[in-house]
Amino acid sequence: MTMxxxxxxxxxxxxxxxxxxxxxxxxISVQRGGISISGVSVAxxxxxxxxxxxxxxxxxxxxxxxxxSNNKGEHRSLVSQQSSQCNFKLKASGRSRCSFxxxxxxxxxxxxxxxxxxxxxxxxxxxQTEVGKTNKFRVCYKSEEYDISETKMDPLQSTEGxxxxxxxxxxxxxxxQQFPKRWVIVLLCFTAFLLCNMDRVNMSIAILPMxxxxxxxxxxxxxxxxxxxxxxxxxxxxGGIWADxxxxxxxxxxxxxxxxxxxxxxPIAAKLGLPCLLIMRAFMGIGEGVxxxxxxxxxSKWIPVSERSRSLAxxxxxxxxxxxxxxxxxxxxIQKFGWPSVFYSFGSLGSIWFVLWLSKAYSSPKEDPDxxxxxxxxxxxxxxxxxxxxxxxxxxxxxxxxxWALIISHFCHNWGTFILLTWMPTxxxxxxxxxxxxxxLFCVLPWxxxxxxxxxxxxxxxxxxxxxxxxxxxRKIMQSIGFLGPAFFxxxxxxxxxxxxxxxxxACSQGSDAFSQSGLYSNHQDIGxxxxxxxxxxxxxxxxxxGVFGTAATxxxxxRGSWDDVFKVAVALYIIGTLVWNIFSTGExxxx
Length: 592
Known about the structure:
Elements: H1 12-17, E1 20-24, E2 27-32, E3 35-37, E4 64-65, E5 87-92, E6 138-143, E7 154-155, E8 167-168, E9 171-172, H2 175-178, H3 181-214, H4 218-246, H5 248-272, H6 274-289, H7 291-302, H8 308-337, H9 340-360, H10 373-381, H11 394-398, H12 401-430, H13 436-466, H14 471-491, H15 499-513, H16 520-527, H17 532-560, H18 563-584
Parallel strand pairs: 5-6
Antiparallel strand pairs: 1-2, 2-3, 4-7, 8-9
Helix pairs in contact: 3-5, 3-7, 3-8, 3-9, 3-12, 4-5, 4-6, 4-7, 4-17, 5-6, 5-7, 5-9, 7-17, 8-9, 8-13, 12-13, 12-16, 12-17, 12-18, 13-14, 13-15, 14-15, 14-16, 14-18, 16-17
Keywords: Chloroplast, Membrane, Plastid, Transit peptide, Transmembrane, Transmembrane helix
Transmembrane segments: 183-203, 223-243, 250-272, 278-299, 311-333, 339-358, 403-424, 444-465, 531-558, 565-584
Organism: Glycine max
């Protein structure tokens, strides 16, 4: 018998798999909805009672109802009765591959109870399958273009949605196949930033035994710590331009490989001399300098506005957890294997990440061939234009007050943040009299607090936006917490009497600082999503300058003053940043 119709790649299987079988004498009728297949001749002697199985690829489901009417206006027949064999000739789309037929145990009434085998039918050849000894089903598949003039087609809506959990052999597909691809990108960026801060903060711990071995004073230590920012400063704006023009995947991948190599070579440079060490730390800064602009670019294309704060908070919490990991494991590695082991072990992890990045990441949803239709619609429908940037409108960008609010606020924020990042172990060691291991372990608590509160702040910010509060108000509220919270707790450090209270103040200071991820760090994508990489490069350049001057100035202040003086400067800048941010910032798009 001959069956003519259009067979979709996606839904052919669901048509046969969910039908019912009615058997009467020699005739079998398979029905689903208004479609019937009748007239199949079956031999008298039955098959053994075993279940025929056929694995049904899910992409081959029926999407068009196959209709053929005879001249008498009777019911539509797709199959004509022949002898004990039946031939199915399908005229299908040239793209179709057909794997179908399902059967149940002989004598049962429900095909759905039978298990399913897969008949892989070639696109270009006839496939024949014989089942049993006396009764045979021959399936002939012929690939040819469908002639729409032959048959009238009505759409058959699939009961399954395109985004549902797909069943295979009665079970849902694995969770990692259903996991949203945009959050795979977020997790990969999270991991990159984890490695970023692991490789950065290990020097904060290793500098203590290194300074003893090479006889470095506080000024030299401050110079070494700040040398990282020399290179970090160079690639902020350049990294943003590269990311906006070439795509975030290429730029971020380059950065991770570059800084990982520089990390591995750091012990060799230190033994060659101080100038070589300063150059190598600057090289490491070059690699890490492109990370934030590239990440901001790629997330601006992958993440809809409704998920912006929480996604950025998760990525930036990777930095904090990187600090936690680096500060926790560095003392252990140093005590057991010596300080060079920290750089060798941490730097080698970048190669593993790079392999995953190459295979899983894409610069934009449009470049990902495996991205589902529903998720692509969600991303592109709820996001900004994804056209690549060819020319950067510098004059327009620098003429906007909210851009300068970002730049100034980023400087004020990073002054205090980088001081705590680079000098906290030394503070614990010199002021609180903790040993090397205790310094590393107690430094973990503030960064762990940041990782937790960054994500809490992200969810709060997205919830406020979804409740109808303006993006401008949300950004101002979150950043005000990120400025005034650290300012308050740093002022308390001079009044505490015990090391435990000092550590608690540090933890509270860093925890409130983490709300900045839903404030100024999310604002680049708000005001100019197409130029998110360049905007972050601009503001983070100011932030890097704060790191360079603040880290070096801290060493200078400590030679002539005290830690109270260090904290007073940071508090003053936090207050200035609060004023500038609340007066000039906005959450509305000002650059298109």
